[in-house]
Amino acid sequence: MFLRKCEALFDGQLGRWHGQQVKLEFQEGAKPNHARAYNMPRCHMQTLKAKVERLVKIGVLKKVNRSEWEAPTFVIPTTKKDGLVRFISDF
Q1: Cys-Cys with 85: which of 1, 39, 63, 75 at CB 3.0–4.6 Å?
Q2: Is 25 helix (H, G, I), strand (E, B) or coil?
Q3: What pLDDT score does 1 carry?
Q4: Cβ neighbours of residue 85 closer than 8 Å, sequence gap 6 or more
């Protein structure tokens, strides 16, 4: 029912939100989480950078110089033979 009602949100595509502005409120007393980055093989670093740049370009992510909040991010190879990787952020 919900998926049918909001079908446009779940079309499998990423991009910029054009609906009504959403405001997320933190719980009272919430403290920023600045987690340590995961070790990642050098062979995946360029792929990760390219994935991040693509997400910035299509409006899913926004570059910031400094933030109190950070989630470790890495890539893992998919099980398919196409050489694609999956982008993972540990929130």
Answers
A1: 75
A2: coil
A3: 66
A4: 44, 47, 51, 75, 76, 77, 78
Chain length of the chain: 91
- 28 — pLDDT class (breaks 50, 70, 90): very high
- What's the CA gap between 5 and 36, in Å, rounded? 39
Phi, psi of 76 (to 5 degrees): -130, 145
- What radius of gyration do the chain's Cα atoms show? 16
Look at the alpha carbons of 38, 43, 45, 47 in this order and tell me if their dihedral is positive or negative: negative
Helix, strand and coil content of the chain, in percent to the nearest 5, comes to 25, 15, 60
39-49: average pLDDT: 84
**Tokens linked to 46:** 């360029």
